[in-house]
Specification:
Number of strands: 0
Largest sheet: none
Strand content: under 5%
Length: 80
């Protein structure tokens, strides 16, 4: 597996150190934040692609309306 080292210093390092949980290493904190950002970017891209798909396929949009109005529990009450 390819790996790299990124140098963090000065105000950025201080900001990271004060932002991360004390129980988490700087490496794992930065990795988690980067992964979260990438996941968020991908979800935004997926939402945009789906919106384009719905625009290009209006019948799919009408099915979504039907789905939202569907009685998904079949009229059965859930046990408490």
């Amino acid at each position: 597996m390819k790996a790299t080292t990124i140098k963090l210093e000065g105000p950025l390092l201080k900001a990271i150190e004060t932002s991360k949980p004390k129980s988490e290493s700087i490496s794992s904190f930065v990795r988690r934040i980067i992964e979260k950002s990438i996941r968020q970017d991908r979800m935004i891209e997926a939402g945009s692609a789906y919106k384009k798909f719905l625009t290009a396929n209006p019948e799919e949009s009408s099915w979504l309306v039907d789905w939202e109005d569907a009685d998904l529990d079949g009229g059965f009450e859930t046990a408490r």
